[in-house]
Amino acid sequence: MAKGLIFNTLSQALYVLSAMSIHFWLGRKLGQALYGDVVVILSVSTVSGLILKNGLKEATSRFTATSPDRHLSVYLAAMKVQLPLSLGITAAVFFGAGLIASELHDLSLSAYIRIIALQVPGMGVYYLSYGFLNGRKQFGRQALLTAVYALLRATLIIGLVVLGMKIVGVAVGTVLAAAATALVGMALCSKAGCRGAFPVGPIVKLAVPIVIFFASVALLMHIDLLMLKRLQPSASAVGDYAAAGTFARTPFFLLSAFYAVLLPLVASAHAADNGKLVRDYISQAIRCLLLILMPGLALLSSLATEVIAFFYGSQFSAAGAPLSILCVGVGCLLLTVQLLTVSQAAGKPRVGSLLMVALLPVDVFLCMMLIPRYGTVGAALATTIAAGVGLLSAAGYIYAAFRVLPPLRSVANIAVASAVVYGLGRTFTVTGPRLLLFFAVQGAVYVVCLLALGEFSTQDLQILKRLVTPAAGGRQPDSISNGEPS
Fold it and tell me: Cα 268 from chain centroid?
């Protein structure tokens, strides 16, 4: 599992780095008002593609992982659903752009929404290819596909905006990057076993509740911005909150590699009726996630205003207050998704779907109550409270169903070390380029704290050694590493 996590975390890191670079540059280049509009149309685009992004991707991954010699058959069966669906969504968003813009109280957005709707078919193929490579445990190719999309998207968007196309350039660049990545994905998936046709029915049956689950997750991450645009349509407020949301969602996309690797491994272990291995995978993944997530949240929350001002410019400083709250909410949402991955991999995704759907009206209600009174801070509070309720519910369900907990000693050690990081951020005021050096110092302090608490074991060092200097020949146990097949 460790090798797969390394591959996917690195590719997700590249994706996040490119996406953040785009946003930083656009914020400084376009200013608050236009940047706010850019993030709104990107959010509309994300919401419109929710059905394609997850569901069929996860179902393809699971059936590919559990159907030897029929890999390509699974991919082709899923494609029979994905392509017509993507074309239908494109048509609905394209012809409904005026209504969407009207609901957001800004009719000028309709033209941009029509353009960016054209990315949906390309993204649908990209998502499906990603799930297929994941199911085959070809984590290297999966990481390559993510890297290709990240680099193409950044290059095209920045290039077109430099040419003077502004918001149109963002929309057109996004469409072209999706189309090109789709072609690369199909090429990477073309050489696989295809013994007989695979039925579409089981794929759709598993995909539907997962679609509902991840559509709800994505809505929880974007509905606050759209509600803010509707309830308090101040150009500066929307721009500030767009900047805060961009930073807050970074851990989710960066650490989604844990979800991508855990799904096929748990599916395989569950299919083999190996309950102990399932529990080991859950425990390992949660511990690794917390090791990275908690100090990141502590750092971002304690230095929110300084971080925003450094990367976006002082004109976005007001985004610091909502960011310090929203990053915690997105962290809770990430942990919730990680926990509910287990039920999806075990072929029981309905619990997660029901939970996430139940959180949506809670979030909308909280937005309606808090945004008119507290503005951007109210939007952040609404999402954070809803996500916290979801995390507590998911943790309770997973414990009841699988009787597994993350190592409590590790959780305590990580919490103590992260509290030290947070304390440093609140104690010292650091601005400008020195902020990057301070990040490095905080990271070093965090590692030293964990070492002093005895967090890292001999097994951790053995895993690291195998990743750096893999042994010639021989196969590593699945409970330690499950890398890309040769």
Answer: 23
What are the pLDDT digits (tens) for 306-353? Answer: 999 888 888 898 999 999 999 999 999 988 888 887 776 666 667 878
Token reading at 9: 């975390």
Place of tokens 């797969």: 4
CB burial of residue 404 (10 Å; 0-12, 13-18, 19+): middle
What's the rounded mean pLDDT across residues 130-135? 84
Looking at the structure, tell me whether residues 328 and 414 fall in a common domain.
no
Buried b (16+ CB within 10 A) or exposed e, 223-238: bbbbbbbebbebbbbb
Quick one: 124 and 168 in the same domain? yes
Between the alpha carbon of residue 296 and those of residues 13, 169, 291, 451, the distances in Å are: 14, 32, 9, 18
Structure tokens at 351: 């619990």
**Residue 262: per-residue pLDDT:** 66
pLDDT in tens, 84-108: 989 999 999 999 999 989 988 888 8
For the chain, the first-to-last Cα distance in angstroms comes to: 16
How many domains does the chain fold into?
2
Of 7-16, 313-322, 375-384, 393-402, the least confident:
7-16
Half-sphere CA count of 12, side-chain side, radius 13 A: 21
- Give pLDDT, residue 481: 29
pLDDT of residue 390: 92
Distance CA 221, CA 306 (A): 23
Domain region containing 322: 2-406
Structure tokens at 94: 């394209």
Same domain? 144 vs 258:
yes
Residue-wise pLDDT tens digits, 26-72? 988 988 888 988 988 988 888 777 777 777 887 888 788 777 666 67
Distance, in Å, from the CA atom of 280 to the CA atom of 185, rounded to the nearest integer, reads 32
Share the mean pLDDT of the chain: 82
Q: Is residue 434 part of a domain?
A: yes
What are the structure tokens assigned to 441, written together? 């110092």
- To which residue do tokens 């650490």 refer? 255
Whether 147 and 106 map to the same domain: the answer is yes
Q: How far apart are CA 328 and CA 308, in angstroms?
A: 16
300 and 418 both lie in a single domain: no
Q: How far is CA 376 from the centre of its chain?
A: 22
Co-location of 412 and 398 in the same domain: no
Domain end marker among 359, 382, 406: 406
